Hints:
It is a single chain. Helix 4 runs parallel beside helix 6 (134-143). By secondary structure, the chain is α/β, with parallel strands linked by helices. A seven-stranded mixed sheet has the order 4-3-5-6-7-8-9, with helices on both faces. The chain has a two-stranded parallel ribbon with strand order 1-2. The longest helix is centred in the C-terminal third of the chain and has 16 residues, at 168-183. The protein has ten helices and nine strands.
Amino acid sequence: MLLALKQATGSIPIVFAILNDPVGQGLIANLARPGGNTTGFTFIDFPITGKWLQLLNEVVPALQRAAVMFNPQTAPYYPAYLRSFEVEPRSIAAKLEEVQVRTEAEIEATVVALAHQPGSGLIAAPDPFITTHRALLMTLTERYHLPTVYGFRQFVAEGALMSYGPDSLDIVRRSASYIDRILKGEKPANLPAQAPVKYELAINLKTAKALGLTVPVTLQAIADDVIE
Length: 228
Protein backbone atom coordinates (compact mmCIF):
# COMPACT_ATOMS: atom_id res chain seq x y z
CA MET A 1 0.00 0.00 0.00
CA LEU A 2 2.84 2.42 0.79
CA LEU A 3 4.35 1.89 -2.64
CA ALA A 4 0.97 2.68 -4.20
CA LEU A 5 0.73 5.86 -2.12
CA LYS A 6 4.23 6.93 -3.12
CA GLN A 7 3.46 6.30 -6.77
CA ALA A 8 0.22 8.25 -6.47
CA THR A 9 1.78 11.43 -5.11
CA GLY A 10 5.16 13.08 -5.04
CA SER A 11 4.08 16.08 -3.00
CA ILE A 12 1.78 14.97 -0.17
CA PRO A 13 3.95 14.02 2.86
CA ILE A 14 3.92 10.35 3.90
CA VAL A 15 5.09 9.15 7.32
CA PHE A 16 5.40 5.37 7.73
CA ALA A 17 5.57 3.48 11.01
CA ILE A 18 6.50 -0.14 11.80
CA LEU A 19 8.02 -0.83 8.39
CA ASN A 20 10.85 -3.34 8.00
CA ASP A 21 12.93 -2.21 5.03
CA PRO A 22 11.97 1.17 3.52
CA VAL A 23 15.19 1.45 1.49
CA GLY A 24 14.94 -2.05 0.04
CA GLN A 25 11.29 -1.49 -0.83
CA GLY A 26 12.15 1.68 -2.72
CA LEU A 27 10.27 4.06 -0.44
CA ILE A 28 13.28 6.22 0.49
CA ALA A 29 16.77 6.80 -0.88
CA ASN A 30 18.55 6.09 2.42
CA LEU A 31 17.88 6.27 6.13
CA ALA A 32 19.85 9.44 6.86
CA ARG A 33 18.36 11.54 4.03
CA PRO A 34 15.19 9.90 2.75
CA GLY A 35 14.61 12.36 -0.11
CA GLY A 36 11.23 12.85 -1.72
CA ASN A 37 8.04 13.10 0.29
CA THR A 38 8.39 10.01 2.50
CA THR A 39 10.05 9.27 5.84
CA GLY A 40 9.20 7.50 9.06
CA PHE A 41 10.08 4.87 11.63
CA THR A 42 11.26 1.34 10.90
CA PHE A 43 10.33 -1.74 12.90
CA ILE A 44 13.44 -3.86 12.46
CA ASP A 45 17.01 -2.86 13.17
CA PHE A 46 18.62 -5.91 11.63
CA PRO A 47 21.39 -6.47 14.22
CA ILE A 48 18.46 -7.76 16.30
CA THR A 49 19.19 -11.11 14.63
CA GLY A 50 22.10 -11.53 17.00
CA LYS A 51 19.84 -10.95 19.99
CA TRP A 52 17.35 -13.58 18.78
CA LEU A 53 20.19 -16.06 18.44
CA GLN A 54 21.46 -15.18 21.90
CA LEU A 55 18.04 -15.73 23.45
CA LEU A 56 17.73 -19.15 21.86
CA ASN A 57 21.16 -20.02 23.18
CA GLU A 58 20.09 -18.96 26.68
CA VAL A 59 17.27 -21.52 26.76
CA VAL A 60 19.10 -24.11 24.64
CA PRO A 61 22.72 -24.04 25.89
CA ALA A 62 23.63 -26.80 23.41
CA LEU A 63 22.25 -24.82 20.47
CA GLN A 64 23.88 -25.93 17.23
CA ARG A 65 21.68 -24.29 14.60
CA ALA A 66 18.90 -21.76 14.29
CA ALA A 67 16.68 -21.18 11.28
CA VAL A 68 15.13 -17.83 10.41
CA MET A 69 11.71 -18.57 8.91
CA PHE A 70 10.08 -16.10 6.51
CA ASN A 71 8.10 -15.89 3.30
CA PRO A 72 10.20 -14.35 0.48
CA GLN A 73 7.06 -12.94 -1.11
CA THR A 74 6.05 -10.93 1.95
CA ALA A 75 9.51 -10.36 3.45
CA PRO A 76 12.01 -10.41 0.56
CA TYR A 77 14.69 -8.47 2.43
CA TYR A 78 15.82 -11.09 4.97
CA PRO A 79 18.35 -13.00 2.80
CA ALA A 80 20.55 -9.93 2.26
CA TYR A 81 20.56 -9.05 5.95
CA LEU A 82 21.27 -12.62 7.01
CA ARG A 83 24.25 -12.77 4.64
CA SER A 84 25.56 -9.59 6.23
CA PHE A 85 25.03 -11.04 9.71
CA GLU A 86 26.92 -14.23 8.88
CA VAL A 87 30.15 -12.40 8.08
CA GLU A 88 30.12 -10.41 11.32
CA PRO A 89 32.17 -11.74 14.27
CA ARG A 90 30.03 -13.24 17.03
CA SER A 91 30.48 -15.26 20.20
CA ILE A 92 27.77 -17.89 19.55
CA ALA A 93 28.97 -20.81 17.45
CA ALA A 94 25.52 -22.00 16.37
CA LYS A 95 24.93 -21.96 12.64
CA LEU A 96 22.30 -19.54 11.36
CA GLU A 97 20.36 -20.44 8.24
CA GLU A 98 17.34 -19.15 6.36
CA VAL A 99 14.20 -21.17 5.67
CA GLN A 100 11.72 -19.84 3.14
CA VAL A 101 8.09 -20.89 3.50
CA ARG A 102 5.09 -20.05 1.35
CA THR A 103 2.42 -22.49 2.55
CA GLU A 104 1.19 -24.08 5.76
CA ALA A 105 2.58 -27.40 4.57
CA GLU A 106 6.05 -25.85 4.27
CA ILE A 107 5.76 -24.41 7.78
CA GLU A 108 5.01 -27.86 9.15
CA ALA A 109 7.75 -29.54 7.14
CA THR A 110 10.28 -27.01 8.43
CA VAL A 111 9.28 -27.47 12.07
CA VAL A 112 9.37 -31.27 11.79
CA ALA A 113 12.78 -31.24 10.08
CA LEU A 114 14.33 -28.93 12.67
CA ALA A 115 12.79 -30.78 15.59
CA HIS A 116 14.48 -33.98 14.45
CA GLN A 117 17.89 -32.32 14.63
CA PRO A 118 19.15 -32.03 18.23
CA GLY A 119 20.25 -28.57 19.31
CA SER A 120 17.93 -26.71 16.94
CA GLY A 121 15.94 -23.52 17.42
CA LEU A 122 13.67 -21.38 15.26
CA ILE A 123 13.42 -17.63 14.72
CA ALA A 124 9.95 -16.69 13.45
CA ALA A 125 10.77 -13.48 11.63
CA PRO A 126 8.47 -10.46 11.83
CA ASP A 127 6.72 -11.04 8.51
CA PRO A 128 3.02 -10.63 7.55
CA PHE A 129 2.85 -14.27 6.44
CA ILE A 130 4.29 -15.56 9.71
CA THR A 131 2.01 -13.28 11.69
CA THR A 132 -1.04 -14.62 9.85
CA HIS A 133 -0.01 -18.22 10.50
CA ARG A 134 1.34 -17.79 14.02
CA ALA A 135 -1.34 -20.00 15.65
CA LEU A 136 -0.33 -22.93 13.45
CA LEU A 137 3.34 -22.27 14.10
CA MET A 138 2.86 -22.13 17.87
CA THR A 139 0.89 -25.37 17.82
CA LEU A 140 3.52 -27.16 15.75
CA THR A 141 6.53 -25.90 17.71
CA GLU A 142 4.95 -26.99 20.99
CA ARG A 143 3.92 -30.36 19.56
CA TYR A 144 7.44 -31.04 18.29
CA HIS A 145 9.24 -29.33 21.19
CA LEU A 146 11.07 -26.80 19.04
CA PRO A 147 12.24 -23.65 20.91
CA THR A 148 11.12 -20.57 18.97
CA VAL A 149 11.58 -16.84 19.40
CA TYR A 150 9.22 -14.29 17.83
CA GLY A 151 9.40 -10.56 17.19
CA PHE A 152 6.09 -9.52 18.74
CA ARG A 153 5.40 -9.40 22.47
CA GLN A 154 1.67 -10.00 21.92
CA PHE A 155 2.37 -13.52 20.66
CA VAL A 156 3.72 -14.63 24.03
CA ALA A 157 0.30 -14.05 25.60
CA GLU A 158 -1.11 -16.32 22.88
CA GLY A 159 1.28 -19.15 23.77
CA ALA A 160 4.63 -18.34 22.13
CA LEU A 161 7.71 -19.30 24.14
CA MET A 162 9.36 -15.89 23.99
CA SER A 163 9.68 -12.74 21.96
CA TYR A 164 12.11 -9.91 21.56
CA GLY A 165 11.35 -6.91 19.44
CA PRO A 166 10.64 -3.21 19.26
CA ASP A 167 7.82 -1.65 21.25
CA SER A 168 5.32 -0.97 18.45
CA LEU A 169 3.33 1.52 20.52
CA ASP A 170 6.48 3.54 21.14
CA ILE A 171 7.15 3.64 17.39
CA VAL A 172 3.64 4.92 16.68
CA ARG A 173 3.99 7.59 19.37
CA ARG A 174 7.31 8.74 17.92
CA SER A 175 5.84 8.91 14.42
CA ALA A 176 3.37 11.50 15.68
CA SER A 177 6.30 13.87 16.33
CA TYR A 178 7.23 13.76 12.64
CA ILE A 179 3.69 14.52 11.59
CA ASP A 180 3.74 17.52 13.91
CA ARG A 181 7.04 18.77 12.48
CA ILE A 182 5.86 18.34 8.90
CA LEU A 183 2.64 20.23 9.62
CA LYS A 184 4.83 23.03 10.99
CA GLY A 185 6.77 23.26 7.74
CA GLU A 186 9.62 20.74 7.79
CA LYS A 187 10.14 18.55 4.73
CA PRO A 188 10.06 14.71 4.93
CA ALA A 189 13.16 14.62 2.72
CA ASN A 190 15.19 16.20 5.54
CA LEU A 191 13.85 14.05 8.39
CA PRO A 192 15.94 10.87 8.79
CA ALA A 193 14.14 7.55 8.96
CA GLN A 194 14.63 6.26 12.48
CA ALA A 195 15.24 2.81 13.89
CA PRO A 196 13.52 1.55 17.07
CA VAL A 197 14.93 2.72 20.39
CA LYS A 198 12.81 0.70 22.83
CA TYR A 199 12.76 -3.10 22.84
CA GLU A 200 10.76 -5.63 24.87
CA LEU A 201 11.50 -9.16 26.03
CA ALA A 202 8.60 -11.44 26.96
CA ILE A 203 8.73 -15.05 28.18
CA ASN A 204 6.00 -17.65 28.68
CA LEU A 205 7.11 -20.03 31.44
CA LYS A 206 4.08 -22.27 30.93
CA THR A 207 5.13 -22.86 27.33
CA ALA A 208 8.75 -23.38 28.40
CA LYS A 209 7.63 -26.12 30.78
CA ALA A 210 5.59 -27.77 28.02
CA LEU A 211 8.68 -27.75 25.82
CA GLY A 212 10.82 -29.22 28.60
CA LEU A 213 12.94 -26.09 28.85
CA THR A 214 14.34 -24.24 31.84
CA VAL A 215 14.49 -20.49 31.43
CA PRO A 216 17.44 -19.09 33.41
CA VAL A 217 16.47 -16.89 36.34
CA THR A 218 18.83 -14.22 35.02
CA LEU A 219 16.85 -14.09 31.77
CA GLN A 220 13.54 -13.90 33.62
CA ALA A 221 14.90 -11.02 35.69
CA ILE A 222 15.51 -8.80 32.67
CA ALA A 223 12.25 -9.65 30.88
CA ASP A 224 9.59 -6.98 30.52
CA ASP A 225 6.84 -9.60 30.82
CA VAL A 226 6.93 -13.09 32.32
CA ILE A 227 3.81 -15.25 31.98
CA GLU A 228 3.50 -18.04 34.51
